[in-house]
Design a protein that fits this description.
The protein is α/β, with parallel strands linked by helices. It contains four helices and nine strands. The protein has a four-stranded antiparallel β-sheet with strand order 5-3-7-8, with no helix packed on it. The termini are far apart. About 7% of the residues have low confidence.
């Protein structure tokens, strides 16, 4: 009975951990955020792309570039103290199982969106000088592989006596749906600037 209780307690604790949520505690100044995303004279032009991660979870520098489908949303947020704390929390917790970082609904409203064109191109117009954060999710079809033993080869000596057996392996390839988040901080320093980036 004591063992069953311990197992149930462990499951409850795991469930509680799975629901751990974090929100920035810094005050969100909506007036400052609105002022930063008001109209200016600058233009930001970019190209969004990603690469399939290798078995170690890294994107190889020489890997093939994969572009988002046309019409993929690219978001631009003003970098406020609230957003800086949100980003720091996400960087700290997002890879830990059972931890999720959220932005308030009000803060999420203060953003600008655009859609990608051919080959991941996108444009933000009429921006003011300031610091911004860009983010998009690139969906793509990834390729994977696995190796499986499919047979064995037996070896015999000249008298027909069995010596040893060698496994035969075959590699199988498959496709699966995947998505990477691509993001970047940028700064527009002068009103009327034309800035070009790769996201």
């Amino acid at each position: 009975m004591k063992r069953i209780f311990s197992v149930l307690l462990l499951l409850v604790l795991v469930g509680i951990q799975a629901q751990t949520k974090y929100f920035p505690q810094v005050f969100f100044d909506k007036n400052k955020a609105q002022e930063q995303i008001n109209y200016g004279k600058s233009t930001l032009m970019g190209v969004a792309s990603t690469k399939q991660k290798n078995e170690f979870g890294f994107k190889p520098p020489l890997g093939k570039k994969l572009y988002p489908a046309e019409g993929t949303v690219v978001m631009l947020f003003p970098v406020t103290p609230y957003f800086e704390e949100f980003y720091a929390l996400r960087k700290k917790y997002e890879k830990k199982p059972g931890h999720t970082v959220y932005m308030s609904e009000e803060a999420f409203k203060y953003r600008i969106e655009t859609l990608t064109g051919p080959k991941g191109t996108f444009t933000f117009e009429r921006l003011k000088p300031g610091k911004y954060y860009l983010e998009t999710i690139v969906d793509f079809t990834a390729k994977g592989s696995y190796t499986e033993q499919t047979a064995r080869t037996d070896t015999y000596n000249g008298y027909g006596n069995f010596l040893y057996s060698t496994p035969v392996y075959q590699t199988f390839f498959y496709n699966y749906a995947a998505a990477n988040r691509e993001s970047k901080f940028i700064e527009i320093k002068a009103d009327g600037e034309l800035k070009e980036i790769n996201l």
